[in-house]
Amino acid sequence: MKIGIIGSGVVGQTLGAALKSKGHDIRLGVRSVSQADLDKPRDRAETLRQWQAKTHVDIVTFAQAAAFGEVVINATGGGVSLQALQIAGAEAIGEKILIDVSNPGDFSTGTLTSLPHLTNTTSVGEEIQKAFPKAKVVKTLNTAYIGVGVNATLVGDGEGDMFIAGNDAQAKASVEALLKRDFNWKNVVDLGDIVGARSMEQFLILWFRLFGLRGTPLFGVKLVG
Amino acid sequence: MKIGIIGSGVVGQTLGAALKSKGHDIRLGVRSVSQADLDKPRDRAETLRQWQAKTHVDIVTFAQAAAFGEVVINATGGGVSLQALQIAGAEAIGEKILIDVSNPGDFSTGTLTSLPHLTNTTSVGEEIQKAFPKAKVVKTLNTAYIGVGVNATLVGDGEGDMFIAGNDAQAKASVEALLKRDFNWKNVVDLGDIVGARSMEQFLILWFRLFGLRGTPLFGVKLVG
Q: Which CATH superfamily is domain B2-214 in?
């Protein structure tokens, strides 16, 4: 499948490499494709040139990635997602499935909190759906470390639960199939319409607390009962 | 053990009856012990007179319950907890273990959200600890339906995780022992100091979404990995 990824940080790179390895045709969308930007050191992520040399994925603009994909993935930070997707363009996104894996995390105070305007009474997923009403927004993969997200068997042999939310049942079914087939998730829990994104994004604070205390992001969560 | 419970709704009643059945000496604290209030119909909970007839637990004022308990439990709603505990009184609470089981849930808009002044950058548990600096505040039991909270075996034979947070290690150890002995929790996950209450209270939105979709509160959550 042709997949355009918006965002080239750790999340976008991890998703791009994993999907490419499963045979998908990937374009990674970045804000700037200048030579200088390809070599710019990046927090935790590889430089784009290093990543490209390893994965052989084409690096293009946000707009080109959105236009290319049959499915588009938002892999930008929650606080900049709406802006990045506006740059990608409503026309290029159209009525496509738009997988949103973002979180409204805010580290600006030194402690992880959620951006108030993107939490509690709303969520990044809901705001994206409002801004792109034709797109079939599907929220998923934001409740786990992305390395686990693309390979559920890294944790407890894949017995954890992945959540999903969105307004379009067929789009959710397609994304669920991808999660199971390509990312080895055995259990996908449907949280209903896109308002479910709110509950998934609120999980960030608990996830991050556990990450800090365990010292590893290699854990998941499973519903019991 | 002598336990004073602040709050007489479903949560306080369920905790009181369960702890009494395990041999603890309980006083249930209410705002008003007038005859009229004992017979007042209550949302979801029994009238206090019905509950008293069944449990034989003494119903007293907030202040009397706090003074009576070697351990005090805050079972009021998160939005009124600080006020209720101020009525109970800092002197009566003193340096006791203060188990906080509340959530900052707000139904006033018709949809469950969290009270902004008690979430994200803080939590009910943290605000209680600030207001009662001598008390040993231990956050727990707020991430499950209280019926499951007092009997973990109702869900998946007790394989779910209960969380706990607080600044005092000895107080947490005492509460953990009570959770395991009296409420059948096999796994208690320590989320560190009282700031961990924040991550536990944020879980409310996901819990409530799952409750709505499943149509039953009989579920739990388990960490994997």
A: NAD(P)-binding Rossmann-like Domain (3.40.50.720)
Instruction: Give the number of beta-carbon pairs within 8 Å between A and B.
Output: 109
Q: What CA–CA distance (Å, rounded) separates B163 from B200?
A: 7
Please tell me the distance from the alpha carbon of residue B223 to that of residue A161, in angstroms, as a whole number. Answer: 10
The C-alpha R_g of chain B, in whole angstroms, comes to 16
Give the C-alpha separation, B118 to B198, whole Å: 9
Report pLDDT for B109: 87
Chain B nearest-CA residue for A200 = B206
A210: tokens are 């556990």
In 3D space, the residue among A57, A30, A15 whose CA is nearest the CA of residue A147 turns out to be A15
pLDDT digits (tens, 9 = 90+) for B53-66: 999 999 999 999 99
Distances (CA, A) of B206 to A205, B23, B105, B191: 12, 34, 12, 18
Cβ neighbours of residue B47 closer than 8 Å, sequence gap 6 or more: B38, B39, B40, B41
pLDDT of residue A181: 98
What pLDDT does residue A44 have? 87
Collect the ranges in chain A with pLDDT lower than 70.
none
Q: What span, in angstroms and rounded, lies between the C-alpha atoms of B80 and B203?
A: 19
Question: What one-character DSSP code corresponds to residue A134?
Answer: T
As a 3-state breakdown, chain A gives helix, strand, coil percent values, each rounded to 5, of 45, 20, 35
Q: Which residues of B touch A219 (CB under 8 A)?
A: 223-225
Strands (E), chain B: 2-6, 25-30, 58-61, 71-74, 97-100, 105-106, 113-114, 136-140, 161-166, 187-190, 220-224
| Dist. CA A171–CA A194, nearest whole Å | 12
- How many Cβ atoms are within 10 Å of A133's Cβ, its own excluded? 10
Strand bridging mode B105-106 / B71-74? unpaired
Q: Where are the domains of chain A?
A: 2-214
Distance from CA of A181 to the nearest CA of B (A): 21
State which residue of chain B sits closest to A157, comparing Cα positions.
B225
Chosen from B154, B157, B209 to mutate, greatest number of chain A CBs within 10 A: B209
Q: Give alpha helix (H) positions in B114-160.
A: 124-131, 146-149
